[in-house]
């Protein structure tokens, strides 16, 4: 029986399945393992079911025991893992695409709605009974008729586009390549980030974090937005230069932000906390019972496929 280290506590049904299939080391207290502890815990294991909170950088990967052959990441994103370092060590890395598209797109839409319609201020006012209806109380931005720029038209971007279109938004997108008109579903292609930003009343960051996308939303690119645009991010914090975005909020260049992901989670740049117009969530993208169950099942399926065939359709390195 293969031995698997599971770095974070999973939902009960997923842990039950793992127990039937493997000699499994579970993390019942859901302790956040340090890199050293993770290496120590993986001694004697054949694979690791990792999470986005595990920083599997080159140094950590090089210290893993030689028995480790797979890192099955419990996420669609894999910015927490150095893919090249894993490849050099002959370790396969897999992810969990598709199953979290709907849940993450729902949060993407919530960020757009929350930021545009001043939900953070509204919640604060309602909770403290410190509000009075008036014709101009908490006037926000209407989605209907606004232009939504989607950076990264993958599965999640497409789903956000579909919902936003049904809300009356006009969809623009930028991707490495133009989609077929079938897949575009009426969305307008912008050939580069500059042209996308310049037509985005609302920006939705949906692209994966990589060496190419790190700090893509920065001082220079933010200037291409129309004045008073809204910036939302459902992808990864690394894509945004926080100081530049906070500065843009301070200058009212950016009207509001809607964020679910941050550099250095769980800590976020305190500059965001000073802004009432920051609608912020704690990385809830995939957080529904259906989706978390499906994600863990897919991470387990990836282990199964890999141990049976030596390969896996969700291998990313
Ligand atoms: C992912 O899978 O990358 C999501 O961000 C997890 O919530």
Write a structural description:
By secondary structure, the chain is α/β, with parallel strands linked by helices. It has 2 domains: 3-99 and 288-309, Rossmann fold; 101-280, NAD(P)-binding Rossmann-like Domain (Rossmann fold, 3-Layer(aba) Sandwich). The chain is 36% helix and 15% strand. The protein contains 13 helices and 12 strands. It has helices at 12-21, 35-41, 58-63, 83-88, 101-116, 119-127, 155-166, 181-184, 193-198, 219-222, 242-250, 270-273, 289-309; strands spanning 3-6, 23-25, 47-50, 70-73, 92-94, 147-151, 170-174, 188-189, 202-205, 229-233, 254-259, 278-280. The strands form 2 sheets. Strands 8-7-6-9-10-11-12 form a 7-stranded parallel beta sheet. Strand 7 (170-174), helix 8 and strand 8 (188-189) form a beta-alpha-beta unit. The protein starts with a strand and ends in an 8-residue tail after the last helix. The mean pLDDT is 97. (2R)-2,3-dihydroxypropanoic acid is lined by residues 52, 75-77, 100, 283, 285-286. The site of (2R)-2,3-dihydroxypropanoic acid has 8 residues, from loops.
Attribute tags:
36% helix, 13 helices, Rossmann fold, 317 residues, globular, 2 domains, alpha/beta
List the helices and strands and how they pair.
Layout: E1 3-6, H1 12-21, E2 23-25, H2 35-41, E3 47-50, H3 58-63, E4 70-73, H4 83-88, E5 92-94, H5 101-116, H6 119-127, E6 147-151, H7 155-166, E7 170-174, H8 181-184, E8 188-189, H9 193-198, E9 202-205, H10 219-222, E10 229-233, H11 242-250, E11 254-259, H12 270-273, E12 278-280, H13 289-309
Parallel strand pairs: 1-2, 1-3, 3-4, 4-5, 6-7, 6-9, 7-8, 9-10, 10-11, 11-12
